Input
Amino acid sequence: MVLTEKDLDEILAYLDNSMKNLAKDALENLEIDGEFQGVEDFIQSQFDIRLENLLVAKKSSIHHLESGMKNKVIQRKQSILDNIQN
Output
């Protein structure tokens, strides 16, 4: 299935909120090895897993996205990580 920009925007907005909440919980608990680096690695991993699960639910995959959409995903992931670092 071809994913529309609107669908991708909805997925990314959901991931924004989801990752912010996950990072908040992880940073409050700091039970992940390596302190902050462990949290960052965990968030990156969870972003990838959750993104793929959301895409599969839409009968798509990261591999099916156009290059412009993939770039948008990469930029959003980096933005989320930057916000967590701050």
In short: The chain has a mean pLDDT of 87. The longest helix spans residues 5-29. The chain is about 80% helix and 0% strand.
